[in-house]
Structure formats: C-alpha cells, structure tokens
Amino acid sequence: MNRKLADIFFKHLFRIVALFSVLALGAILLFVFSQGMMPFFTSTHSGIRLVAQRIDDITVNGVNYRNHDTFIDIPNNDSVLVSTNSIFIDFPSWETVQISDDHFNDVLIENTLEIKIDNNEKDPEKKVSFLYNGDVTITYPEAYVFTISWPGNIAALQQRIHVILPEPPYNIFGFIGGLDWRPSRDKVYGIFPMIVGTLIASFGAILLGVPIALLCALFMAEFLKPKTASILRAGVELLAGIPSVVYGFFGLMVIVPFVRSAFNIPSGNTLLSAIIVLALMILPTVITIAETSLRAVPQSVREASLALGASKMQTAWRVVLPHANSGVIAGVILGISRAVGETMAVILVAGNSPHLTINPLESVRTLTATIAMEMGYASGRHSEMLFSIGVTLFSIILILNSFILWFRRKMEN
C-alpha cells in the first residue's frame, strides 16, 4: 500500500514539475519574442514627449506644470494638437538687464515657443519647425530629438526643453538586411554584417574543429589502451568545463599576437582569431560526445568487420563511425550551438567592428557580442532591438539544428 501511494505521489510530482518547467520555458520564450518583435509593429511611445530642464513653471497647450521632473506626454489625440498641429509652450524666466553703467535689474520675461508638426514629413529632422521669441538655440543631438535652449549667464544655467518625437515601427527588412548599426545618433539598426560575422566565425570554427575532434575521438575510442584513454578522457572533460572567458583570455594573449606577427597586420583582433578560439572551445564538447558514442558501439560490430578481412583502420572509419553517427551528429549540433552563441571569448579577440567583411584578417562583430556590449546602457528602441537580435540568433540556431537533424534522418534512411 505504501509503495502504491509513493508511486502515485511521485507520478503527480513529476507531472507538476514538468508542467511548471514547460510553462516557465514558454513564458521566457514569449517574453523574448514579444520584446524582439515589438519594434517592428509599434512606435516607441504614443505621442510627442517634452522634458523641461531647469524650468519650474511651464504651460503646455494651456495645462500648467509646476516642478515637473518627468516626461510631459502629449498624445496624438490631444485636442489642441489635432486642431492646429502645433504645441504651445509658455514659461517665465528672470533675465538680468543692464539699466546703466553701474545698475542691473532682474526682469521677468515670458518666453513663448510654438512647435509645428508636419505629419506628412518622413524625415524626422524636417518634421518639426519652431516659432519663438527671444534668443534661442535649437540643436538636433540625435534622431527624433530636438533641444531648445534659452541663454543663461553661464551654460550650466541655460533653460532647455527637449522635444522627443515617437520613433515609428522599424522596417524588419532594413533590420535584417541593413549594413549600418548606429543606435545612438542616427537610430539606424542594421545587423546584416553581424549575421555574416557570426555565420563565418561559426562555420569556420566547425570546419576547423569538427574534423580534428572526430579524429581525436576515433583515436581515443579505437586505438588507445583503455587506461590511457581514460586519462585523456578526464583531461578532455576538464577542458570542456573551463569558462569561456579563460579561452578568450588565452586567445587575447597568445592567438591574437600570433596572428598579428604571422600576417604582419596592425591588429591581431580579427575574424581568423575568433575562428581559432571558437574551434578550440568546441573541441572538448564534440570529442567527449563523439567518443562516448563510439565506445557505445557493440563489440560484435567490430568483430564482424575484422572477421571479413577489414583492417582496424577500415573498421574504425567505415563501420564504427557510421554506426555511431547519431551521437556524433548530436556532438556537432552542440558544438555549433556553442560556436554561434559564444560571447565573451569573441568579444576579446574579434575586434568588434560592425562592418561587413569576409576577409579573415579584418575585425568583425557577432550578434552575441553586440548584445553583451550594449545591453548595459541601452534603453527604449535600442534595448528592444537587442532583444530582436536575440530572436534572430535563436532563429539561426533553430534553422541550423533543424537542417542537421534533417540531414541525419536522410542518412539513416
């Protein structure tokens, strides 16, 4: 009776744990995908935003704000904005006026500013025009942002109003196929050079690392004595547990100077350095999984091949390796996933230049490096675009793994 109750308890416990695991994974994927797709379907905010700097009393479209230290939101359905396509701003300020050679008086001046919005204009720099009184300076520090400054006795006392226009939904084709990544000033988000850099670095690492890994695994499983193989296996498993930043530091101190001196180039932080480091990083993973799969092949398969007159090399290469192809391909999939998703080591050795190149002696930037380098200070549309890069990275890994699995099924058939 106790055993039956225990079986029922653990059966329901496993179901609950599995359900919560699936729900948690689904919630994470839903959050990432919703954040990543948001920039292509929604604007950054519903209307125009104003930020008053060193202005304690300001009136916007007839509404007075005192000591307002956050955004002043003006939605698109604001009655004044809809009727006139204008925003009217008034605020008082004291200005020192010279009356005579020795006398100065503080005079209260009413500053007025009218912002006209042209909704038919696509260029954000031409979308807004200003009418104002007095001495005013208007700057355009970044796309979709205007700064209007009233002079003070010193620059630190200038009164400013920042006008922030909503950024429209971004073109998804411009995002995937764009060649420029300038999120700070121009709000341009093109990741095609980073996609190319990620794919070339990953495939280069696979082409360099996987053949070496398979040969090492085959040698350990088929040609080494069991005791020697166990010692090497422990060393390889130890290498698989080394943090990626250690590989990156090794690449920065050894591989980068070697590439610089070998090819006589100004900097060794190049695509070639990233390929070599990634190849070294995937070796332990592929070797461990492939060697385990090769050792799992029944001994009778080897004996049958040897009995037919095949050599030990022919048996290992043409019989044992094809028999273990399922585990070998699983190791290759994990190696590809690690190469595509690697961050810290690539940041240290690749140079992180976001321009399109296929030259192995030039610097590149990968998708993961962009997320890691910019997520700490990104906000607004910039932060959403980094989530979009994460969705793109997930899609790339999914497509690559699906292709490899399809290829494995084709080979098995």
Within CATH, the superfamily of the largest domain carries the name MetI-like
Number of domains: 2
The radius of gyration computed from the alpha-carbon positions, rounded to a whole number of angstroms, is 31 Å
Q: What is the helix content?
A: 40-55%
Remind me, CATH topology of the largest domain? MetI-like fold
Please characterize this protein's 3D structure.
This protein is of the alpha+beta class. The chain has two domains: 47-167; 188-412, MetI-like (MetI-like fold), CATH 1.10.3720.10. The protein contains 13 helices and twelve strands. The protein has helices spanning 2-37, 79-84, 172-177, 192-222, 226-240, 244-263, 271-295, 299-307, 312-323, 325-341, 344-349, 367-374, 381-412; strands at residues 47-53, 57-60, 63-66, 72-75, 86-98, 104-117, 128-132, 137-142, 145-150, 159-164, 181-182, 188-189. The strands form three sheets. It has a five-stranded antiparallel sheet, with no helix packed on it. A hairpin with a 2-residue loop joins strand 8 (137-142) and strand 9 (145-150). Helix 1 crosses helix 13 (381-412), helix 5 (226-240) packs across helix 7 (271-295) and helix 12 packs antiparallel against helix 13 (381-412). The longest helix has 36 residues, at 2-37. The radius of gyration is 31 Å and the shape is elongated. The two termini are 48 Å apart. The mean pLDDT is 86.
